Batch of 2 targets.
Target 1
Amino acid sequence: MNKIKSLDDLRKMKQSLEHGMNIREKSNSPESLVQIRVAMATCGIAAGARTVMNTLIEKIEIEKIPAVVTQGGCMGYCYAEPTIEVKVPGKDPVVFGNVDSKVAIEIVEKYIKNGELLDGIIPTNYQTINE
Amino acid sequence: MAQYKMHLLVCAGTGCRASQSEEIIVNLNAELKKQGLQYDAQVVATGCFGFCEKGPIVKILPDNTFYTQVKPEDCAEIISEHILKGRRVNRLLYEDPETRKHIEDSKHMGFYQKQLRIALRNCGFIDPENIDEYIARDGYAALGKILAEMTQSQAIDEIKKSGLRGRGGGGFPTGIKWEIASKNKADQKYVVCNADEGDPGAFMDRSILEGDPHSIIEAMAICGYCIGASKGLVYIRAEYPLAIKRLQVAIAQARDYGLLGGDIMGSGFSFDIELKYGAGAFVCGEETALIHSMEGHRGEPTVKPPFPAEKGYLGKPTNVNNVETFANVPVIFLKGASWFASIGTEKSKGTKVFALAGKINNVGLIEVPMGITLREVIFEIGGGIKDGKKFKAVQTGGPSGGCLTEKHLDTPIDFDNLIAAGSMMGSGGMIVMDEDDCMVSVAKFYLEFTVEESCGKCAPCRVGNKRLHEILEKICAGKGTEDDLSYLENLSKVIKDTSLCGLGQTSPNPVLSTLEHFYDEYLAHVKERICTAGRCKALKLYTIIADKCTGCTACIRACPVAAITGEKRQPHVIDVDKCIRCGACYDKCKFTAIHVQ
């Protein structure tokens, strides 16, 4: 075990460790984060939602975007799986269909980072009981 | 490090462990592996979430799903539904008692909405046996910062500015305590952490030690630096095996990392911690008694001064603080004294942890900002009184505290307001009572405890409390007189004024406060011989329901004092004055014609 010999050592150690706690820290204030929900029902998983979710998690990690990726149940857009819902704070949620890893990266780069809309948006025509 | 998508936090505090949370952890891990998800989700054993009423708790992040009363056999469903398919298991979600709706996100639970967790910041959030998780949350950063950048007096000033007061009961300003200890010169000084949590029903210190032991180690080291001590001692009761184990693990880890021991973080400052076990005596919460117990002597208090800051453990300057007090210290340095001082009331800063117990829906551990009202605590966080009964009183401060009633519900809770209301903060036990509780019996219960726990050194406490208890027993047995009430009051005051230590000086408080707020109830006991709450067996009122009585005379023959009269086949009558409430008639009657009130 390497001893912590100075405050710098401790800070470096903290930086290398905080990564593992990210999910927990983020869950403390989900309202202020971009919330990405991946539909992970059977059909979504079959269509590759798991890979998409991994890609999204890696991408937001690399880009250091304050976002949290969660998984949800079936959203009902079976024709457009995998689907993801993106909720940027202060904006209405947007649902994207037919998301593969390439599209996922595009969504992060264009929509989440720059607010540009892109193809593949499914017009939301539902309300949730939370609204 | 693997990138987990989800974290499953499982409470591994004493309460939830008693309901098989260890088995839940094993099952969750096995199930993850079976479904090939062991790299997607991580199971973490954490400290207490506070919501002990509904344990064991499993919380799933990042979506803040809060599963309650989970059983080991539910684990397969949680993994296959929630983790694999993203569908919450509705039947395990917390159900709002009023709306009967399942609450998906723990942030929307009434229990958590008004809470502010500072001392409990890591409880139920990190794995207490993993120092890395503590460091990832800025652990030991306060110690590092102080050692590298602050002088002793600067650090003490910061604590003074924060307004932190001792959470063990007395509410003495922590910064001033540290300053006094720092000014006393000696070749060796000691930092003592008082983990001898003695109040019946209070378990915040245990939960902090079980859920976040590193915060206490860090704070003790900070205190050591401030007062110039290189040795720390934790006085912990042997009845807390899990807290002891977690503390031992944490101390070993801190030593491995060089955060305890010689030359901490290259500063030249050395500090190490040793555990001392107590046998669980209430009086050892008093600092001089605690020190004597640590030295191997009887746990008896001595007169102050000299204060421990002057002559404490082994005759050396010693600073004693309670667990919860220490738990606040690192945060004060990380976020700043002014941040801490912005929370709470004018003279009581920060938050206080309370152990909610008694006739309340959400029994558990809560942390709230000072200045919150009892109403908010009991009815919003606590979810109100059980079974829709009526609120009667709340006892705060344990055996040293008093009862607060309906008229105090809107008083902001802080050190001074509680004292003004005839109770005290104490260590934070809060026992809620409803209409079925007899206040004389409640006072009797606490006196029973103090009689048992009095060390016997000084007469007022040893003899006085015993007498108080006898009078209360007499009243509950229906043999009290009105004179007894004034005797109770006088004796209480004498004990308070003349006892040697905090135990005796506060032990009559339950009597005095119930006398003040529930005098009518005492009067009913001694004058009308009625216990309005129906608790005191000897004061039960037996009457005969005329419609049901067949006039069989069975009760007349059973009554040992000839209190029942009546002709054959005519309804009988009980003479209340003659009746000794033995219940013989009740047992004998075959027609349920005897009514007991």
Target 2
Amino acid sequence: MSTDFSQPQRQSVVGILVLFFYSLQQYGRALWPIIVIWIFKFDEVNKMYLLLGGILVFVAIAVVSYLKYLNFTFFLDTINEEFIITEGVFNKTKTAIQLDKIQQVNINQSFVQRLIGVYELDVDTAGTNKKEGAIKAISHELALELKSRLLQNEVKKSTSEAEESHFGKSIEKQLEEEHPFIKISFLSLLKIGITSNYGRSISLLLLFLITVSDYIKKITGRDVFHDENIENYVDKNLVIQTFFIFIILLLSTVLVINLVRIVFKYYDYNITRQKGSLLLSFGLLNTKSTIIKPEKVQITTVTSNYFQKKMNILELKIRQATSGEKEERKSAIEIPGCSVSESDAILQLLFRKIPKKGVMLKPNFRKLGFSLFLSIGLPLSGFGAFGYWVMPVVFEYGYLVPIYIILVGFVQFFRFKNSRLFIDDHFIIKQSGAWDISNEIIEPTKIQAITTSQLFWHKNLNIGSITLHTAGGEISFQLGNFTTIKKYVNLWLYEIETSNSNWM
Amino acid sequence: MENFTNETIDTSQLPKFEEVQFTVLHPNYWKVTLISCFILIVFICSGMLLGLIFIKEFSEFQSELMSLTIVLIVLILLFSRIAFRKKRFAFRNHDVLFRHGIIATNTIVIPYNRIQHVALHEGLVSRYFGLAKIEIFTAGGSASNIEIPGIEKEQAENIKQLLMGKIQKQL
């Protein structure tokens, strides 16, 4: 029954056709401007040349796809338990995937493949979101067989996992009784609604206002904001009053929009415990539900601002490791409006203990200088240069410059003041933000790779940056004491390398 | 923060990643880099020449354009050289280190038990010099992958085998 996969194999012979169509598609996409020009100048161009050129291109693509077919082989190395794909005509690539690491094997069929009667086999690991290995043309039986061979180890693994979960159950049951579930009340949602996402709502509102005024301008042919009639209506004494009314109106609209959005999205937010995982369901019109598995959690973010702290409320964001599509990978699960005790209960569930803020790392003051340079220095010199050489008219708005400097300066100062890295034995917490202060929590065992970085003129100052990569994103901290950073990097590496901790 | 203590491990006794002896890339890889630089330079020069021949306005600035091209070429060569000199790698018992960067020194460390899979690339030019590039993938996204170019083909094959062995042992 079994085909011998241990010898390097080519794809199905008819696969040359698939490769031909795919190459054609690829070149067609790359060369479409030229093709369009050809079509438009069809009458002017010598038809003989066109025909010859066309044939030449087709032959070249056919040769290339034949070579691609010849050079594409795959095989199962049974001794080392790995799946090896060799490909490439001039630039050769050899991809080796350990069988244990394979998460998914998908068998697909595109339109072209259906016409020809072959299938595509994709091998997916937890790594980068693109497919790690893809065989473009393979017969259905062979695909199924290869799939079962590739996933043989998976069966073994899942049985051992099942045993493990059996052991853990008795402990979990005890915990379950302590925390039956958390329900986020309507009041909490209201609190979150009026205290969060000011920036996003204001920009949405501005966008809306601009669109509406544009629309009115188009219909009536008059500019709403610079209409003389309006200026005539408004008495000079009333100018300030109307301005304030406008501001209040704007703010209340922002609040209402925020409230409605939050309530619609998160109405009736329920968190239930189920076999050690968290089950979330929420939504007013269409109820969404998601599962959080504690072992898959990579980065947990706790965010709150000044008002929210006063109201004893905060937002949680959880990023899990996914081997799925890009969008799924990017999106975080949000839990809005927990009280501190509720969030502690959730964190307790996820980490089995409440994260502690350990040793504190502060950034060097040069970080503030650099961000001030980027956010104030560069834009202002751009503004100056633009006004000086291109349009002196912009200097009429010069009175905005001090406002901008003060505003951005404050934001950058608080961002610098809040930028901290806390290191505990079991947790790394990065604090950041100007108004909304967020704490990103990761466990050292979830680290996939560590990057340290130092500019050469920072060597004597002994400051540098660190980035911790996890399967759910990365956290980085700039310009801290480099000796301390290096010490912890060595410690984390030691911890990762001496234990076989499960990061997913 | 300096008096961090831990009951079980003495952190000062831990192996230090910053003191690791790094291996530089194979000298032939500089030739590979030079060839790809040369191709780039040929493109720039031919673009410049075409511009000078066909666009009349350009001929007024002939000397400026020439010096600009020369500066560009010198910069390309200089930065390629620095980048080549600063790229280095090390394989320890439990992890792989790669150092790179022109103005910043970036060191990326991947523990073997976090490697997902390994790929071996051979470019057309590299193959002529018997060199290969190893790419090491983790689950942490593209920023946490390592690409080590300029390793002799045979050595690269050995490294790949070593890595695959290490991955396996961890499970």
